[in-house]
Amino acid sequence: MKKLLLIIPAFVILRTSAQTIIKQDNSIKQMVDEVSSKNIEANIRKLVSFKSRHTLSDTTSKTEGSGAARNWIKAEMEKYAKESTGRMTVEFDTFTQPKSDRIDKPVKLKNVLAILKGTDPNDTRVYIVSGHYDSRVSDAMNTNSVEPGANDDASGSAVSMELARVMSKWSFPSTIIFMCVVGEEQGIYGSANVAKRAKAEKWNVDAMLNNDIVGNTHGMDNDIKDNKSVRVFSEGVPTTAARNEREISALISRGGENDSPSRELARYIKETAERYVDNLDVRLIYRRDRFLRGGDHTSFQQQGFTAVRITEMNEDFTRQHQDIRTEKGVDYGDLPDFVDFNYVQKVARMNLSVLANLALAPAEPENVGVITSGLTNKTTLKWEAPKAGKKPAAYYVLMRETISPYWEKKFYVEGTGITLDYSKDNYFFAVQSVDDKGHESLPVYPKPVR
């Protein structure tokens, strides 16, 4: 006999009650608390000390240029790997980028990947957190100027590095990759190489978190000071579906325009991160990236993987892509003294809580469907247990009104199906796996089945 329990998620504030229950995993909370703003600041300032991290800058010097920067990142990651008892390995992902609009000649480039191998040989899932270590000034082809890139994107690289330091000491059933990529400013080439490699080598990338510009808390022209809010950008129509008329038609027919895998990841980030990080407001932005702009998560979306971009709430454009100078009393340049290191710490803790919860959770349920064999005001859902990894203790069926951006109710189900007294005409549903400690998988939006 199936047991059914209505669960209200922790992030929902009930109108009928003044209480909100938050249940945390002590091990995840311990990891979150270990994330250090001092380490993050030290790493950002060290990256700035290389003067230029332009993709086409010097690779032979031991103290300046992108070559020195990537060697230092790799060496630091290798120090962290010593805490992993052999589970974490560090490597260069090396490739040759042909000449293009912002690459004046073929050049050998290197990403840095720290791979924390999962402990369950049957769990093939991979989770990726990334920032880009290259920088630029006003002229994208200027390789000679001082290009500090403290916020764009030493901040994102520092997030990957700090998470590698903390999480290398722990074990997870699935694999986590901490990544610092090159070539973002010249055309997102570093992430594109990793994403294509992941596709070719059939990595089971379950989610990719791209941290790009995550260290500023003061809006340039709106004078908004906000150290609580962080944006998560997620695409609605999946990039790969946009190439296929049949997939678009199916998406429209079942009303799934707002329930892409990346959008489910964004909702998951909000629920999970706000569970573990105090004074954090995760703001879901329903678009792939900022208006007419892009980032490294796009490379993974183009290969069919679930990915989002994480970015500060209000950007200061006097810092981004600027020559260091003073004009009319305004300081320009992406220098470390303008980075809020405690805010970067908060963003890093946000990333860690999500990665840890996902990597500890069972895999998503498979073949999730909503039954369409008859006209009814009820909704019948069915699914199958994941074939790989640990068996879920149970499942959550998620429900929300069609006008709601977040999941509003959770039904706890022991079994692989349920009939709810709510109409599929009026509500959206999804299903996620959960283990006995409360770690949830990503939600899966159902497809129609007979």
Description:
- By secondary structure, this protein is of the alpha/beta class.
- The protein has two domains: 105 residues, Sandwich (Immunoglobulin-like); 326 residues, 3-Layer(aba) Sandwich (Aminopeptidase).
- Helices cover 28% and strands 24% of the residues.
- The protein contains ten helices and 18 strands.
- An eight-stranded mixed β-sheet has the order 2-3-5-4-6-9-7-8, sandwiched between helices. Strands 1-15-14-17 form a four-stranded antiparallel β-sheet, with no helix packed on it.
- A hairpin with a 7-residue loop joins β12 and β13.
- α1 packs antiparallel against α10 and α2 packs across α4.
- It is globular and about 70 Å long.
- The relative contact order is 0.15.
Summary of the model, kept short:
This protein is an alpha/beta fold. It has helices spanning about 25-35, 35-50, 65-80, 150-165, 185, 190-200, 245-255, 260-275, 295-300, 340-360, and strands at about 5, 90-95, 105-115, 125-130, 175-180, 205-210, 230-235, 280-285, 305-310, 325, 330, 365-370, 380-385, 395-400, 410-415, 415-420, 425-435, 445-450.
Q: What's the helix and strand layout?
A:
Layout (H helix, E strand, L loop, with lengths): L3 E4 L18 H9 L2 H12 L16 H17 L6 E10 L9 E10 L8 E8 L17 H18 L7 E7 L2 H4 L1 H12 L3 E8 L17 E5 L11 H9 L7 H16 L4 E5 L10 H7 L4 E6 L12 E3 L2 E3 L8 H20 L5 E6 L7 E6 L9 E8 L7 E5 L3 E4 L6 E8 L12 E3 L1
Parallel strand pairs: 4-5, 4-6, 6-9, 7-8, 12-18
Antiparallel strand pairs: 1-15, 2-3, 3-5, 7-9, 10-11, 12-13, 13-16, 14-15, 14-17
Helix pairs in contact: 1-10, 2-4, 2-10, 3-4, 4-10, 6-9, 8-10
